[in-house]
Amino acid sequence: MRDLSNFKGCPAPQPVTLKGRFVTVEPYVREQHLQALWDGLGGMAINPLLRYFTQPDFTGMEDFSNWLHSVAKSGWLTHVFRDNSSGKIVGVANYMRADPANGVIEVGGVAHGPDMKRSPLSTEVHYLMAKHVFEALGYRRYEWKCDNLNEASKTTAARYGFTFEGVFRQHMISKRRNRDTAWFSMIDSEWPVLNAAFEAWLSPDNFAADGKQKRRLEDIRAEISKEQAV
Question: Is this model's pTM higher than 0.90 or not?
Answer without folding.
Answer: yes
